[in-house]
Amino acid sequence: MSTTEQGMVQKAEPGVHHDHHELPFIRQYIFSTDHKMIAKQFMFVSLFFLVVGGLLATLMRWQLGYPGQPMPGGGILPDAMMAPTPGGAVMLPEFYNSLVTMHGTIMIFFAIMPLLVGLFGNLLIPLQIGAEDMAFPRLNMASFWLAVPAGILMLASFGVEGGAAGAGWTSYAPLSASGEYTGVYLGQQLWLVSLTILGFSSLAGAVNYITTVVNMRAPGMTWFRIPLATWALFITAILVLLAIPILAGALIMLLFDQTIGTAFFLPEFDGEPLLWQHLFWFFGHPEVYILILPAMGIASEVIANRARKPIFGYHSMVLAIIAIAFLGWIVWGHHMFQSGMNPMLGTSFMISTMAIAVPSAIKTFNWLATLWKGDIHLDSPMLYALAFVSLFIIGGLSGIFMASTPVDVYIHDTYFIVAHIHYVLFGGSLFAIFAGITFWYPKMFGRLMNEPLNKVHFTLTFVLYNLVFWPMHNLGLQGMMRRIYDFTQYEYLQPLQPMNRFITTCVFLLVATQAVYAFNFFWSMFKGEKASANPWNSNGLEWTVPSPPPHGNFAETPVVHRGPYEYSSPESDTDFLPQTAPPRRQPDRPLEPTPTPEGA
Amino acid sequence: MTTSAAAVDRAPMPGMKVYNLKLGLWVFLLSEVMFFTGLIGSYIILRFAHPEHFAEPGVVLNVPLTAFNTFVLICSSVTMVKAFAAIEQGDQRGLKRWLLATIALGTFFVGVQAFEYNVLASEGFVPVAEEYHAVGRHQPLDGPAIGGPLYGSTFYAMTGFHGTHVTIGVLCLWFVFWRARKGAYSAQSFGGVEIIGLYWHFVDLVWIILFTIVYLI
């Protein structure tokens, strides 16, 4: 209960900033309650997991590019993963299953989600709404320190007997419910425990974000003056809050099936494997929007800023976020068209799914309209953001294919799905994360990232990314199933070998390219050009404070007078107008009353 | 809570006229609603799919005992309100007394549940599918099994999770009681009492729903 005393004291005295006494190292860098430090902690840990997930993908791609051939350097992996042969170590099918499962799990739950929600939620929400910190700083710290053991447990599962979980990131029962089917006992249980702990971490974050946005906004920061990144993160927090408990319940039931022998998902005792799919996707589809809405918010910020224009249709952007989040709750069945579900039900899920195209298209056209006749600055955050928009369009359109039940019958569980998810999750979310990290890097570290290196990274990543994932649409249409260990065992798939080898080569290059970003990331931290408080000439409150902002963020509680996207306004001599700029008196307009911190 | 929750901690404009901790708890309770929704929804699906796994009310489960236990839990909500009302008046003794009463009733509830589990398990009503052999109340242990493993699995999952919530609530009440003894609350500052009260009422409400659908229907 004392958790929030700090938050309450802060709120009680708006405008009084913190004492700048030096905190001991451990409180400042490890068990920190400062939202900016927690954001960085989430960033470092999730970027580490991003690398892990990428390396897992390269292992998988070796098997697909060179099925059954000895892997160079594979000998260093234990015999439980690689079978030693005279020519070298060959990947075992069980290990391939673990790779498929863990690549998906790690990328979704330990890389993309904490980068979007943990990093940007923590970094941006208090800064953009003019708060000194989160509502519950210690709960925030707990959120991070719950995520760490969850990650350790997940990684540790590679080392246990039977290997890591191998039932796919969706862990469909009964495959996941009994170790007899996969030979994975402890690994699957660790997977369940790890995700349950991570769920608590996400919940703690969501409670914090929602309370903060509702209650801690600076005077004058009305709902429709909140920057779109924070809007998206706020709606995302609501999705996390309501979706994660469903997953937690399902995970625990599955864990009970595994450990104490309950019957929930086990057909031999009349349990219902389909129930798992319903519960998982009732969580899983909102999760999809948890993974894309913050990316949309980030892209909106960057595009408006780098086009030097107000975002087109700010209100419709906000309403579209809300509409997507709402529709996200009634479409989960489109993941289950082939599960034996009632076809009538499938039709209604098909229609509700297609309805999501409407708010998504509103957002897309608003981005394009924002660019229209803008003063476009093609620097690296903008390039990443534009890549986000274009790749999201491709991923969104392939989504319509799968939403149509007659088409889905054909492409279901093929590489077409793999292509789709990577277009929205890599092309969408990850490019937006690159945009966001690059854009707010000066706010985190006080320095700018190296621009030429970023452009090299962008160009290579954009090209290689498309070379990897575009052909996967074709693989899928030609019938290559996802998660398959050795597709060459089917004669009709053998002609796909050259294309698979090509993709594998491109994956190796794509992963290697990320070293450019990693180098730039660390190099700029120490050697990058020093950043001013507002290097992008942006309007948001986060740019009114020094880079990086001090503990407590704002020396005085800011007072907000306008929306966040008033670029190239005739009211201003420059092409931007900070949210804190008081309105200029116009003869025919009465002066807007200035809100006071006391809220009188 | 050394700062005054009710008087000092007013949200500055904009925001809701609710202090952070209370708003945060309401938000948290929303996620709790979804958690129990998942459990109850699963129960409904499994029961509709396999009605033969479930028994008529009162055949396997002890309804009178649990009805009494439900009454105890509802009483504990009343004592919780009394504790809150006491500190609103600045009545320190009343706060501590009613908190202790709530703790006692909550503990009693969990105790009865543990006792009930024991009896049920001795009659073959267990969560483990392979060992499920519920014979019903006061029946010879070698009699025919009533219902099926889904009954045991869902019963223990739902009541068990609720019992865990009550136990956590009791621990939090002990914490609030300990703070109350140190004089942490006053007529101006009672945030901790208010939010543990909200949680406690929520847990109570969930039980009424669970009791209805697990025991009575």
Explain how this protein is built:
- The complex is a heterodimer of chains A (600) and B (217).
- With 600 residues, chain A is an all-alpha fold.
- Chain A has one domain: Cytochrome c oxidase-like, subunit I domain (Cytochrome C Oxidase, Chain A, Up-down Bundle), CATH 1.20.210.10.
- Helices cover 60% and strands 1% of the residues of chain A.
- In chain A, strand 1 and strand 2 form a beta hairpin.
- In chain A, helix 14 runs antiparallel to helix 16.
- Chain A is globular and about 80 Å long.
- The two termini of chain A are 29 Å apart.
- With 217 residues, chain B is mainly alpha-helical.
- Chain B has a single domain, classed as Cytochrome c oxidase, subunit III, four-helix bundle (Four Helix Bundle (Hemerythrin (Met), subunit A)), CATH 1.20.120.80.
- The longest helix of chain B is centred in the last third of the chain and has 33 residues.
- The radius of gyration of chain B is 20 Å and the shape is elongated.
- The termini of chain B are far apart.
- The N terminus of chain B is likely disordered.
- The chains are: A mainly alpha (600), B mainly alpha (217).
- Chains A and B meet through helix 1, helix 7, helix 8 and helix 9 of A and helix 1, helix 4 and helix 5 of B.
Give the strand content of chain B: under 5%
**Describe the biggest sheet of chain A?**
2 strands, antiparallel
Strand content bin of chain A: under 5%
The strand count of chain A comes to: 2
**How many individual β-strands of chain B?**
0
The largest inter-chain interface, given as chain pair and residues per side, is: A-B, 60 and 56 residues
Structural class of chain A: mainly alpha
Number of continuous helical runs of chain A: 18
Overall average pLDDT of chain A: 92
Q: Mind describing the biggest β-sheet of chain B?
A: none
Helix content of chain A: 55-70%
CATH level-3 fold name of chain B: Four Helix Bundle (Hemerythrin (Met), subunit A)
CATH homologous superfamily assignment of chain A: Cytochrome c oxidase-like, subunit I domain
